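Before drawing any conclusions, I needed to go through one protein's amino acid sequence and its backbone structure tokens, quoted below without any editing.
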Amino acid sequence: MFTALNAKKSRDPELESQALDWIEANLGEPLDRKKPYDDLLKDGIILCKLMNKLIPGCIKKIDTKGGGFALMQNIERFQTAAKQWGVPANEVFQTVDLWEKKNIPQVTLCIHAMGRVAQLRPDYKGPSLGPKMAEKNERQFTEEQLLEAKNTVSLQYGSNKGANQSGLNMGKPRSILD
């Protein structure tokens, strides 16, 4: 499974391809697959267009030319819109992850998170990307199991057994000379 913890380790061409397929399907136009994945997304233009398809009008201005600062603003606009879409903040990449190619797997994780969130939105009618998020996690316990749980002491309360501080010396010992 692709998680934020292993995101910095390596890129997965299959996940990147799935992300591009999903973007193409939502935009309704083909992307230039001859360009490397990170170069294709670097200026943020495609990502901003994607967000405007998902949430019409959410990004008012998309800079198509100009210096690095103007194009980096596209990425920041995308990040804001992705959070508005419902992507958890810890799954949204930082601007340098894409612009300076510091952590491209985090960019891919963000796009996959968008696809996962999309499946829970009633207003989204596009293709799916990745596994569907669970809507419920109901559990059924018997009355006997519930009563047994009352006898369990949680480790949050600490314990008076096990390790203690006896024999522990902190700092330099006091030395008294006669």
Remarks:
- The chain has a mean pLDDT of 83.
- The CA atoms of residues 151 and 157 lie 13 Å apart.
- The helical segments are 13-27, 37-41, 45-54, 68-85, 95-99, 104-118, 143-149.
